[in-house]
Amino acid sequence: MRKENQTWMSEFILLGLSSCWETQVSLFVLFLVMYLVTLLGNFIILLLIRLDSRLNTPMYFFLSVLSFVDICYTNSTVPQMLVHFLSAWKSIPFYSCVLQLSISLALGGSEFFLLGAMAYDRYVAVCHPLRYTVIMHGGLCLGLAAGCLGAGFVNSLMETIITFRLPLCHNVINHFACEVLAVLRLSCVDISFNMVMVAISGFLVIMLPCVLVLFSYGHIVAAILRIRSTQGRHKAFGACASHLTMVSMCFGTVIFTYVRPAAGSSAEQEKMVSLFYAVVTPMLNPFIYSLRNKEVMSASRRVLGKFNEKK
């Protein structure tokens, strides 16, 4: 963006989810509860992994990183959205919008790469169980986590720069947060190049981890089918069920938002799907990994038992 446009566009107006006051109050209560549940659930996951030594495995290391990313991602958008529900003037300063867009892009991209890394972890656990601890050593886990976060932030930096270099004709964003496609609609020049870059970014951030997930689970399914005992098959599948549920939600939602043809999309549809991904998915992740995971449930009972003994 040219300097004069940056000076003139000092803030943006976010239209949010509704203009009706009664609806906004109801949405405030609903999303406040969901926000608090998200924070509590993910903090509990982090606490359990920290306090219970039996969860000090690569799988739960990646889960702790994912919970941390979910907490940060939720905090990048939801607190502002809650304030705007009760505000008559829903504005966000220009540089705050840039920061919000870059952070949400970085954390969102990092989450997809983390899901790919977690799929590889499940592949090694099921297909190479005897070599699992040797292959998934601490150095590799730290490297994969750092690589996932680094890739997310590099992609975000590229998207943010090319988005805010465009001259903007107006400052009203039809969204509840600063989001790439919503900001691009403000441009008064051709955005074909930006849309191509969004498609390339979507391929790299979404489709590459998705291919890794499909590759990993293809080998996992083949390995499970070779197990003769029914109990062994259930145990092997149970080790992957929680991650597979998360993958289905995250990849399905974002592919629907960004990979479908632009002609078939609308601002309202993108808003709803983005809302599901930004609020609902981070809230559900702890429940998926606790209610469907015996190790996490056992760890919670052990930690509660230790606190009761101290009392």
TrEMBL record:
Main location as per UniProt: membrane
Membrane topology: Multi-pass membrane protein
A Gene Ontology molecular function term of the record: G protein-coupled receptor activity
Family matches, as InterPro entries: GPCR_Rhodpsn (IPR000276), GPCR_Rhodpsn_7TM (IPR017452), Olfact_rcpt (IPR000725)
Subcellular location: Cell membrane
Protein's job: Putative odorant or sperm cell receptor.
Family annotation (PANTHER family): OLFACTORY RECEPTOR (PTHR26453)
Protein name per the record: Olfactory receptor
